[in-house]
Design a protein that fits this description.
The complex is a heterodimer. Chain A is built from 17 helices and 2 strands. Chain A is mostly helical. Chain A has a two-stranded antiparallel sheet with strand order 1-2. Chain B is mainly alpha-helical.
């Protein structure tokens, strides 16, 4: 290898400076070797189980009736598509994901803009802002359910009584608006996430250009719309995409706050219930397959976005 | 790496050199709006922290005071909540969480580092496809594979075994770590690697001496975020473990079933279980941002 490096004419090196010839020369397998452990591990741990799910989705398999196990073709899928609970779960999942991501993005952007200025106690405010994200999700859900929403001793009704006296209304927050209760608790946790990424985006803005525009008499709104927002676009897309990946899979809040009751069961909770409680393995798997197909459709679009984000860097 | 340092360097320089101009311009606006905006930032920050502050305060009240309505902020402080939490036997689940989080994070780094190397410095063919394959597994909902994972564990006796959870957390966090480390490795100066390769340095030496120092910040961020996600995980732990290998989040969900007042106890428990994440997150806020954005924001 060293001899071939020596014989190579120097002009070639100039023409192709990077990635270098010396590195490229070594065999394909030496190149792939470091990748293989991770690749094989991920395939075994995430793709094989899904293949098994696919197989089980065509089976009549309920752990309570082990003798009736066998293949049934598309029966499970027919049940999944005609079942109103499943359709409700699909609807809830979409509503939950879209509203949590959108509201946290808008709030996160507003707060990031507020924090992107020099003021007294900036560090303290930033630290306070990220606190919700650092609470374990189950703990956060418990906190909202019992310490805030509880109609008898929760903080919300407690504040109402403190401000308006003993005759203050004492609503039962979760029962009245179960889905909004879950969304609010999730927005509280995800706004700091969006804020952190958007704030990093704001701080990477080329300041001199903004200053120049300001001196040229551009108004704050003008600067925001034609300079800040375009610059932030990729950060907004990134935080929205990552937030959606996590919120679409949310289980902790639905499980803790409503136990999937009151029409709040999303797909992860619905599948958990079908498999864990009802022990209907075939139907749970069919629902899982449907979720994956739906996710693939949405993810293809999302990945294209993500690709444009990372392209310029590579 | 060199690009980041220089870019932050210039932006820092821009701020400091632009300071006089900055203040000059800001004075043009009525100063009152500045005070208003700062006040708004303080109020919003406080509102976001309020539930956590309330949780901490409630955890230090006794159960009767915790359940008062209207709330009694100045009730005498008490350690009853913590006492009943620690009497409930939280150490096994806390230790399980610690084991699962630390070991899975170590495994993630062990697997992700060489993989990220193969995707950036000496890229395999179609490396972007491989990279996006990893990310796509992150989009595959965990529930879609949880039943086979359960049945397999049942068959081979891995149910309620912490090692099964460690392996699953590793696969859950591996894609994030690979993306992140790759974005850091992409900044390693290739000429240095070339020189090492010409000198005949082995792969391990190259990794250790040239690559690792440059990507140490990335490794720290990846470790932080993998630790947090493993520590927080509930669904897999709830389905795959019970009395022996149950983790802290599972322990928390079983905490409310008891009769009578439990608010102070639940607040104490939630605070203790969140404490490692709070400490790590506060201590490394910038690492948190890098980790959350999978290295896209540095």
């Amino acid at each position: 290898m060293s001899s071939s490096t020596a014989t190579r004419p120097p002009t070639e090196q100039v023409r192709n400076p990077e990635p270098s010839k010396a590195l490229r020369r070594s065999g394909d397998w030496a190149r792939r070797a470091p990748l293989l452990p991770a690749l094989i591990f991920v395939i075994v741990m995430t793709q094989l189980p899904f293949v098994a799910t696919l197989v089980i989705s065509f089976m009549n398999w309920n752990a309570y009736y082990p003798d009736e196990r066998g293949f049934t073709g598309f029966d499970n899928f027919a049940r999944v598509f005609t079942d109103t609970n499943t359709r409700q779960a699909v609807f809830v999942t979409i509503l939950l994901t879209v509203s949590v991501v959108l509201v946290s993005l808008v709030l996160g952007l507003g707060i990031a803009l507020l924090l992107d200025r020099k003021f007294r106690g900036q560090g303290i405010v930033r630290t306070m802002m990220i606190t919700p994200f650092l609470i374990v999700p189950v703990a956060a859900a418990l906190l909202w359910k019992h310490a805030l929403y509880n109609p008898e001793y929760g903080l919300f009704n407690g504040l109402l009584k403190t401000v308006f006296g003993d005759n203050a209304p004492q609503p039962d927050w979760i029962t009245n608006n179960p889905l909004i209760a879950i969304i609010a608790a999730l927005v509280w946790q995800w706004t700091p996430f969006m804020m952190l990424i958007l704030l990093a985006g704001l701080q990477s803005r080329p300041l001199d250009v903004v200053e120049a525009a300001r001196i040229d008499g551009a108004g704050a709104w003008q600067i925001f719309r034609s300079m800040t927002l375009p610059h932030l676009r990729q950060y907004i897309e990134l935080s929205g995409l990552l937030g959606a990946i996590y919120v679409v899979q949310n289980f902790d809040h639905v499980f803790t706050i409503t136990s999937g009751g009151l029409g709040t069961a999303n797909l992860p909770y619905f599948i958990y219930q079908t498999f864990y409680t009802a022990q209907d393995y075939g139907r749970a798997s069919a629902a899982g397959v449907v979720v994956v197909i739906g996710t693939i459709l949405i993810a293809t679009a999302a990945l294209r976005t993500a690709f444009s984000l990372f392209k310029e860097e590579s | 790496m060199s690009t980041t340092t220089s870019s932050t360097g210039t932006s820092d320089a821009g701020t400091s050199s632009g300071t006089p101009r900055h203040t000059e311009v800001r004075h043009a606006k009525p100063p009152r709006s500045g005070i208003l905006l700062s006040g708004a930032a303080w109020v919003i920050g406080f509102l976001f922290a309020l539930p956590v502050l309330w949780m901490i305060l409630t955890s230090f009240h006794n159960e009767n005071d915790a359940a008062k309505n209207p709330p009694d902020v100045f009730a005498p402080l008490s350690l009853d909540g913590y006492r009943s939490f620690f009497d409930a036997g939280p150490w096994p689940p806390l230790l399980n969480s610690l084991t699962a989080s630390i070991l899975s994070t170590a495994l993630v780094l062990l697997l992700a580092f060489p993989a990220a190397y193969a995707l950036s410095i000496r890229p395999v063919k179609k490396w972007t496809d491989v990279l996006f394959f990893f990310l796509s597994t992150k989009m595959l909902p965990i529930v879609a594979g949880i039943l086979p994972l359960y049945l397999f564990a049942q068959k081979v006796g891995l149910l309620d075994n912490i090692w099964w959870l460690i392996l699953l957390y590793t696969s859950m966090n591996l894609p994030i770590a690979i993306w992140m480390l790759r974005s850091f490795l992409a900044e390693v100066p290739v000429e240095m690697l070339e020189a090492a390769s010409v000198d005949g340095a082995s792969l391990t030496r190259t990794l250790k001496d040239i690559v690792a120092p440059v990507v140490m910040p990335g490794i720290a961020s990846a470790a932080l975020i993998c630790f947090i996600f493993s520590w927080n995980e509930l669904l897999l732990a709830r389905v795959l473990t019970s009395t022996v290998a149950g983790t802290a989040p599972v322990f928390l969900t079983g905490f409310v079933t008891s009769q009578g007042l439990f608010l102070a106890k639940v607040c104490a428990a939630s605070f203790v279980v969140s404490l490692p994440v709070l400490a790590a997150g506060f201590a490394a806020q910038d690492k948190l941002v890098q980790g959350l954005s999978m290295g896209a924001v540095k």
